[in-house]
Amino acid sequence: MTTHRSAEVDDLWKTFHRVVNMTSRELREWLGVQPDIAPQPTHERSPLGLAVADILAKRRVDLTVEDLAVMQRVVDVVEEEAAAAPRRAQANDERRRHRLMNVGHDPLRADDQR
Q1: What are the angstrom distances between the C-alpha of 78 and each of 6, 38, 39, 57?
Q2: Banded model confidence at residue 36, pLDDT cuts 50, 70, 90
Q3: b/e per residue, 74-106, with b = 16+ CB within 10 A?
Q4: Coil/strand/helix, residue 69
Q5: DSSP for 81-102?
Q6: How far apart (Å, rounded) are the C-alpha atoms in residues 76 and 109?
Q7: CA dist., res. 57 & res. 44, Å (int)
Q8: Where is this region: Disordered (predicted)?
């Protein structure tokens, strides 16, 4: 994945946007990040989730190598959870659902609701 125009990057871009079904704004709200408000020190934030929110605001041509690594990691997390449990189990298991939502995937949301 050295060039941003390769078929591999295009596939990752599509897969990432398929598995991340929350918008950047929804994800930031979930993570408790408001643009003009200082973060509260007691609230633990997901660095991976924050990176996802930043990527959602980018164009494909602006992706960095680090962004591509984050995108692949998120795809892996969501696919691992999907393989481990059906959607209903993901939604009913609070720990699992929160893990997924921390990276931008809400298992309660239908695939076409973004």
Answers
A1: 23, 29, 27, 20
A2: low
A3: bbebbeebeeeeeeeebbebeebbebbbbbbbb
A4: helix
A5: HHHHS-HHHHHH-HHHHHHHHT
A6: 19
A7: 22
A8: 82-114
**Token code pair at residue 67:** 């962004």
Instruction: Provide the 10 A C-beta neighbour count for residue 15.
Output: 16
Q: What is the mean pLDDT of the segment spanning 9-23?
A: 96
pLDDT tens-digit series, residues 83-100:
887 777 766 788 888 889
> What are the structure tokens assigned to 98, written together?
């929160």
Angle, alpha carbons 103-109-114 (nearest 5°): 80
